[in-house]
Amino acid sequence: MLNFKKMKMIKKISKILFIGLFVALTTSCSDQLDIPSEASLDANANLATEDVDKLLTGLYKKMRHPNQYGYFAIMNTEIMGDNYKPVKFQWFQVQNFYENKVPAGDILLSYFYADYYAGIDRANTILKVPSANEAQKGAARYNRALSYLRLYDMFERVPLIDENYDRTPIAPSSKEDVLNFIVEDLKYAKENCVSFNGLSLLESQKTPTKEAASALLARVYRVQGDIAAAGVEAEELITSGKFSLAANPLERDPEVIFMYKGNKAETVGSWGWIMSPEARTWNCFAAADDLTALVKGEDTRKILFDFDGKDANGGYIYSKKYKTEDNSDLLVSRIAEMYLISAEAGNTARLDELQAARKSSLTLAEERRLEMSFEWTRWEDLKLEGKTSYILPYPTRAVDSNPLLK
pLDDT tens for residues 114-131? Predict the structure, then answer.
């Protein structure tokens, strides 16, 4: 008998064979930016607070699960980077991402673009609700900022649409303007979101908070080249006393600032599965050799990799950072990243503190690569280090819908 994973794999393979037909059938529903309208509540009505919360829940779900291939939408920049060692490519589309040679007509590419814009559209819907309170708007703008950051990672220059967008063709903005737009959204979120409450840890970790906005601001300031501003945000979080480095990196509750909580009923957390030997006959990735080589001596992060299973797994070392079940949490921000950013901003004591907790003595760049592996920061690091200048092309479908992308 086929086990559940094998049945799921066959289902996924079958789906990819029919994607072309699906696209043909749904293209007629697209507007100029290829953004499906997915709100079922009237944004112009004075909705009850709980109804706006329902819209927010739908937005969170879209962020965690952009489409039926959400694991690739989530992991695509990790696949494009250098932390993975491919075990098998079942789909040539995945191999194209790994080799940084994605054609404009790639079907996965079209999903990545359109479905992050669908998340932005959901955020804009909430921002148009007259009765939405400032905290709800802050949460929507946090998610809009994160969506644009994902798009920036892939395309850099993208059209900027806000809640006043009239659904007409719009040209892509400059890299600088995209990042500035993200910063303004995060400043608003930091000002208006609820504060992180350590007495309600899980609820705070899965809710956009002031602290979550501050953490993402630190990351974006660093991408902009303003490491001093990034360091200020990082220090605010470190000195808040709300977060701490965990003794066991797999038991990271005290470290998590924000995450999208896994939900087994949705069965969408497969980023852990494709990074495990369970997926070795499908699209599967082990950890890169030069990444695992950074784990030395008594480094506590050794527990994040399956070194003991190397021989049984054909010489591959797999990551254990995420569960292999389809309910893995989606990490967005941890306090460890803030220690690294603060150290980069000149607070060298923070590197010493991180290394004492991790029992490590790597360089700052090496610590960052190992600590943040598989958390969607490596691709930007490679760009900042001048190791890649690759940018994904705009999808053909998006260009057809929005001629100004040409």
Answer: 999 999 999 999 999 999
Q: Which of 72, 184, 170 minimizes the C-alpha distance to 127?
A: 184
Task: Give the pLDDT band (50/70/90) at residue 249.
Answer: very high
CA distance 89 to 207: 35
Are the C-beta atoms of residues 380 and 153 closer than 8 Å to each other?
yes
Report d(CA 8, CA 270) in Å as an integer. Answer: 11
- Rounded to 5 degrees, φ, ψ at 55 are -65, -40
- Does residue 143 come out as left (phi exceeding 0), alpha (psi in the -120 to 50 range) or beta? alpha
Q: What is the pLDDT of residue 38?
A: 45
Residue spans of the domains in the chain: they are 4-405
Do residues 198 and 204 make contact, with C-beta atoms less than 8 angstroms apart? yes
- Rounded-to-integer distance, Cα 182 and Cα 35, Å: 19
**Which CA distances in Å does 299 have to 149, 248, 322?**
31, 10, 19
Identify the bridge partners of residue 88 per DSSP, sorted by sequence position: 284
Are 95 and 88 in contact, with CB atoms under 8 Å apart?
no
Q: Quick check: 401 pLDDT over 50?
A: yes
Compute the Cα dihedral for 266, 272, 278, 282 and give only its sign.
positive
So what's the architecture of 4-405 in CATH? Alpha Horseshoe (1.25)
Structure tokens of 1? Answer: 């008998």
Instruction: Considering only the C-alpha atoms of the chain, give the largest distance between any 2 of them, rounded to a whole number of Å.
Output: 61
Does position 30 have pLDDT exceeding 50, yes or no? no
Written as one string, the DSSP assignment of 211-241 is HHHHHHHHHHHHHHT-HHHHHHHHHHHHHTS
And the tokens for 7?
């049945």
Q: What is the pTM of this model?
A: 0.90
The residue written with tokens 């000002």 in the block is: 191
Which residues have C-beta within 8 Å of that of residue 59, sequence separation ≥ 6?
119, 122, 123, 126, 139, 140, 143
